[in-house]
Inverse folding.
């Protein structure tokens, strides 16, 4: 009862400032809002005709040079009576309420008070504080475009629009986060993307109620169908070509302001193993490397658990040539295979995490110390067998072959899960764990579309771009799991 | 409803697990705590007892010793070995079972059945008969060859792979299959052991589970051409001063309607790799003469080999299978044995030999 009352009270409090912001803009009102803001400036200038104009802006958010060039200079030399006649800029908007004034100020606009007409104008002069277009740091490729997204959403939209210069490419803007006021842009191709996905995405974005969003992954967490899963249900990428390709297949793109990572949905588990480079290489070569990625994922997840299972339970399964090597290397170790593997994997994770967090140069040193010194010393001290060190090395490298970083992280967790199962139940435990992971993957959805498609549900035609990357000439239809409105990718159907 | 479906599915999966016979009670198989035995040597211990020997610790580079026990039962022996060794002996990696000739003559069915029913043991376990004192050989070689057990296994594996055509190699599954088939008798390789050597002797023919006869040298080579690999790398015939290499055979056997005669046609291809006789094989006529001599020689020896099999009442080539016809009642084993002993053998060789030299015309 009290809780309900309290909740109502909160809502009341929420309404109050809303009413307050509906009031007309006054200089005093603005002064009140800008109190205790050192970087807020209220200055007055006089035009050639002697008219006084008040400028209100937040210094750190605007481009000072453009302020001088586009506003100060024209104003001081202006002989017209009104501001909109003096300033020839397309981004001049008339504002009436305090709410609008506040919004414009924090978005990097300058408010101008035209006393002759008693009107307030806003000129958008946002400081384009951004790095240049650089190549992707997380999805590096040899062939293909080098550009990647930056923190500026407008720039990111441009990069996609340049790849898809069609009017059917729509962008819908949403603002989320009561504090961060983060702009999210939903992109899709009208007449191609299934309207159900679009309305689903719209409703998910509109339903977001949180204070701040600093990264696109945080937005994804609010839109995911299964929040407790270790698998990402939105693909994060900073490559505009990957986004353009996905849009062309009938998928949705979510661009989030102040983050270089776009979200792609709906996706499948197998999309996370695909690299843009797959489509730039010869199909047989690309297929081979894609298969290696899948194999590496399986290796990364099962290699160490298999070592533990075989050395703890199933010595019968080890080839005689290898068993003698294992017997030799394990004969004087103080730990059981499980604890030996667990400690080595934990050490590896510590080294990996430390090298990521450290500055680049220190990170390299750490890699050398971790990889060579600790690895060598562990064997010499008799804490781990040489065989395990080799396997840990293979497993660690294999885990990095998956193009998606989130899957790499997930694979580590699965590896530990399998490790425990293998120590208790052996290979049978790994099989049980495999069934559990597959069942979980089978139950996942991405924007309510099956995550394990086209394996389950089975879409025969989509297998051409699954484990192998078939010839582009044969990829005549868009993926069925996306249910696009236009099935065919070519105009001439055969 | 969804929960019920899930429960049914889970129950279904668990029942699959249970029906596979997976035991929930696992043994301690931690690799550094066990000694995975690679071979057993079983010989007759007198008074119905068995003498079991193995080398411990297996597969590691530590000082090894030969453990020997005299027991009534095989499993009893394995149990008692654990009591005298600091690591538990495990049979899951057993790759060879060497049986002494005396024991093989007494019968090996109980031994084979024990191995067959052991779920730990792989059916790809090599079986061999050893003539002579194998224990002496092991003791003598302990210092010279520390990884003796592994090298023995590697030798058998090498000759099994890709049908090398040098020696008979038989595993537990193959032996069992022939032992329990109506028209076949099992075979095993025979090795001769003494203090300093361990040499391949030939092939042992078993009547049921008892060693009946052993064939050596030329007979064994012919046997490789008839059954085992249909290939012999080098077929040396010292009587004719000739060696044929890369010999491959295609054997066609035909049984007459009343099982009184067996016609064997063998297409033999190879090349003359060595000749130290009187003939000048640079001339085609001389080559033809030599070929005829080889043909007669092979036919004579083949007939003798078959005669031996008939005398010993063994049918390792599974000739009896030729008596099987669709919609006809198969012969009883005794019936076939009776026919087999009295059967007339006709052998016809077709030789396709390359002289490997330029022949003068």
């Amino acid at each position: 009862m009290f809780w309900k009352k309290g909740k109502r009270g909160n809502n009341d409090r929420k309404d109050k400032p809303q009413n307050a912001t509906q009031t007309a803009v006054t200089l005093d009102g603005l002064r009140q809002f800008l109190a205790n803001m050192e970087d807020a400036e209220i200055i007055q200038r006089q035009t050639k005709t002697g008219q006084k104009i008040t400028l209100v802006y937040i210094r750190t958010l605007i481009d000072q040079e453009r302020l001088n060039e586009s506003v100060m200079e024209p104003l001081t030399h202006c002989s017209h009576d009104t501001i909109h006649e003096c300033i020839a800029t397309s981004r001049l908007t008339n504002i009436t309420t305090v709410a609008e004034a506040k919004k414009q100020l924090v978005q990097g606009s300058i408010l101008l008070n035209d006393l002759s007409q008693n009107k307030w104008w806003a000129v958008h002069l946002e400081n384009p504080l951004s790095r240049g277009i650089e190549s992707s740091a997380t999805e590096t490729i040899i062939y293909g475009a080098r550009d990647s997204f930056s923190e500026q959403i407008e720039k990111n939209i441009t990069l996609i629009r340049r790849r898809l210069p069609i009017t059917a490419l729509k962008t819908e803007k949403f603002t989320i986060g009561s504090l961060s006021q983060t702009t999210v842009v939903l992109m899709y191709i009208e007449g191609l993307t299934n309207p159900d996905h679009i309305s689903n995405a719209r409703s998910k974005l509109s339903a977001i109620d949180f204070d701040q969003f600093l990264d696109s992954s945080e937005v994804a967490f609010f839109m995911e169908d299964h929040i407790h899963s270790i698998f990402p249900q939105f693909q994060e990428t900073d490559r505009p070509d990957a986004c353009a390709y996905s849009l062309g297949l009938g998928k949705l793109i979510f661009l989030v302001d102040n983050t270089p990572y776009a979200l792609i949905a709906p996706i499948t588990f197998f999309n996370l193993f695909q690299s843009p480079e797959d489509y730039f290489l010869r199909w047989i070569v690309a297929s081979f490397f894609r298969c290696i990625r899948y194999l590496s994922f399986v290796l990364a997840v099962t290699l160490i658990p298999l070592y533990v299972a075989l050395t703890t339970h199933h010595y019968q399964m080890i080839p005689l040539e290898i068993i003698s090597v294992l017997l030799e290397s394990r004969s004087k170790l103080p730990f059981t295979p499980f604890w030996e593997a667990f400690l080595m994997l934990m050490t590896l994770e510590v080294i990996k995490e430390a090298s990521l967090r450290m500055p680049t140069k220190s990170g390299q040193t750490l890699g050398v110390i971790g990889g060579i010194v600790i690895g060598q010393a562990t064997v010499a001290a008799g804490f781990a067998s040489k065989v395990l060190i080799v396997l840990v090395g293979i497993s660690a490298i294999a885990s990095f072959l998956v193009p998606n970083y989130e899957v790499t992280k997930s694979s580590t967790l699965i590896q530990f899960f399998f490790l425990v199962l293998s120590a208790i139940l052996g290979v049978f435990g790994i099989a049980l764990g495999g069934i559990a992971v597959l069942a979980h993957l089978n139950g996942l959805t991405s924007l309510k579309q099956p995550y394990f498609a086209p394996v389950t549900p089975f879409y025969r035609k989509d297998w051409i771009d699954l484990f192998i990357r078939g010839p582009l000439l044969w990829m005549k239809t868009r993926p069925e799991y996306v249910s696009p409105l236009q099935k065919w990718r070519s105009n001439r159907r055969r | 409803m969804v929960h019920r479906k899930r429960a049914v599915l889970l129950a279904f999966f668990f029942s699959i697990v249970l029906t596979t016979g997976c035991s929930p009670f696992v043994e301690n198989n931690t690799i550094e705590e066990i000694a995975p035995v690679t071979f057993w040597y079983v010989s007759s211990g007198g008074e119905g007892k068995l003498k079991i020997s193995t080398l411990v610790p297996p597969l590691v580079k530590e000082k090894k010793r030969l453990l020997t026990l005299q027991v009534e039962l095989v499993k009893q022996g394995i149990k008692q070995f654990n009591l005298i060794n600091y690591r538990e002996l495990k049979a899951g990696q057993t790759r060879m079972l060497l049986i002494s000739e005396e024991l093989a003559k007494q019968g090996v069915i109980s031994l084979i059945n024990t191995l067959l029913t052991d779920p730990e043991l792989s059916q790809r376990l090599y079986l061999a008969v050893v003539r002579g004192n194998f224990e002496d050989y092991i003791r003598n070689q302990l210092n010279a060859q520390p990884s003796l057990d592994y090298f023995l296994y590697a030798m058998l594996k090498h000759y099994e792979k890709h049908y090398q055509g040098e020696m008979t190699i038989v595993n537990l599954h193959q032996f069992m299959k022939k032992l329990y088939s109506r028209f076949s008798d099992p075979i095993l390789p025979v090795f001769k052991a003494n203090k300093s050597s361990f040499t391949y002797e030939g092939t042992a023919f078993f009547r049921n589970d008892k060693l009946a006869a052993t064939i050596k040298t030329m007979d064994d080579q012919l046997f490789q051409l008839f059954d085992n690999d249909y290939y012999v790398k080098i077929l040396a015939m010292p009587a004719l001063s000739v060696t044929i290499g890369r010999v491959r055979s295609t054997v066609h056997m035909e049984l007459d309607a009343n099982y009184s005669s067996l016609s064997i046609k063998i297409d033999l291809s190879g090349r003359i790799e060595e000749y130290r006789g009187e003939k000048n094989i640079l001339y085609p006529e001389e080559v033809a003469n030599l070929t005829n001599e080889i043909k007669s020689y092979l036919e004579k020896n083949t007939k003798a080999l078959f005669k031996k099999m008939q005398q010993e009442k063994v049918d390792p080539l599974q000739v009896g299978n030729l008596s099987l016809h669709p919609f006809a009642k198969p012969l009883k084993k005794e019936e076939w044995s009776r026919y087999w002993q009295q059967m007339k053998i006709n052998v016809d060789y077709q030789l396709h030999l390359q002289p490997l030299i330029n022949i003068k015309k």
Residues 192 and 288 of chain B are 39 Å apart (CA to CA).
